[in-house]
Specification:
- There is one protein chain.
- The chain has 292 residues and is mainly alpha-helical.
- It folds into 2 domains: 88 residues, no CATH class; 168 residues, Cytochrome p450 (Orthogonal Bundle), CATH 1.10.630.10.
- It contains 10 helices and 8 strands.
- The strands form 4 sheets. It has a two-stranded antiparallel sheet with strand order 1-4.
């Protein structure tokens, strides 16, 4: 973001309005509600216009200023190797950038928020996490090269996303009539599969409400069905940023945990809020304590 860009508050507010309003898309006849002058739809259109304005301005700045070595510059340089060899249009760039803006920070932030909450409630897990970071990093900052040597850190994040998956439900619209088991799914119907439900199924996870990173040893994970755990979706439309998200989440967790402990403010209520993503309904008020 450039210095003349919008404030963090503007972006955050617009994203929150957009995410809350997107739940309307799952209602019957949602396409007919879209352009009615309802208060929530007016707020959504204003928020969408704000985000579009931010992204289109950044696209124009990159087109005028050349390659800056960032992700948007890489998208501008991309060419359609299977088509006419041209680059992306502004609309295509906007779609890619909007996906990264909404999915690339909201879900990771939620995953790390729930992870810190769970770690703060389980001293033995926190202790083992710190021991791995001290042993592997020796006080230095982690890098991508350290990922293979941080298996417990990844297990902690994996287990947090089992209990509190940032994407708690996946929806698909049937394009033709189809049969699923003994049920007929008519064309046009929305079908939802919930990570929240599957990840807490006792058929796959013993004592499923318990926070236990040891579920994610290689032996334990390989013993479960493939689709018993899918925090990033599954199949041909699995999240394209999954591997980046794992890297980002583990490195951020390691970077902070090597120096700090987080503690939930006494009496602060903790409850999930299932909108497009799974957020803490009342936020997550925590104090930060320096280790040692």
């Amino acid at each position: 973001m450039v210095s003349s860009g919008p404030s963090f508050y503007t972006v955050r507010t617009a994203i929150e309005i957009a995410l809350k309003t997107l739940t309307v898309a799952t209602l019957p006849f949602a396409e007919r509600l879209d352009w009615l002058p309802l208060p929530h739809m007016l707020r959504f259109r204003r928020a969408k216009a704000q985000l579009d304005g931010i992204i289109y301005r950044l696209i124009q700045e990159r087109r005028a200023g050349g390659d800056r070595g960032d992700l948007l510059s890489l998208l501008l340089l991309a060419q359609d190797a299977e088509g006419d060899g041209t680059g992306m249009t502004d609309l295509q760039l906007r779609d890619e950038a909007m996906t990264l803006l909404l999915a690339g920070h909201e879900t990771t932030a939620n995953a790390l928020t729930w992870t810190w909450y769970l770690v703060s409630q389980h001293p033995a897990v926190e202790r083992e996490l710190h021991e791995e970071l001290d042993r592997t990093l020796g006080g230095r900052a982690p890098s991508a090269d350290d990922l293979p040597d941080l298996p417990y850190t990844r297990r902690v994040l994996s287990e947090a996303m089992r209990l509190y998956p940032p994407a708690w439900v996946v929806g698909r619209r049937a394009v033709i009539d189809c049969e699923v088991g003994t049920h007929t799914v008519p064309s046009g119907a929305l079908v939802f599969v919930s990570q929240w439900v599957t990840h807490r199924d006792p058929r796959f996870f013993v004592d499923p409400e318990r926070f236990d990173p040891e579920r994610w040893t290689q032996e334990a994970a390989s013993a479960r069905p493939k689709f018993s755990y899918y925090p990033f979706g599954a199949g041909p439309r699995v999240c394209i940023g999954e591997q980046f998200a794992w890297m980002e989440g583990v490195l951020v967790l390691a970077t902070l945990a090597r120096h700090w402990r987080l503690r939930l403010v006494p009496g602060h209520p903790v409850a999930p809020q299932a909108i497009v993503t799974l957020r803490p309904k009342f936020g997550m008020r925590m104090t930060v304590q320096r280790r040692g």
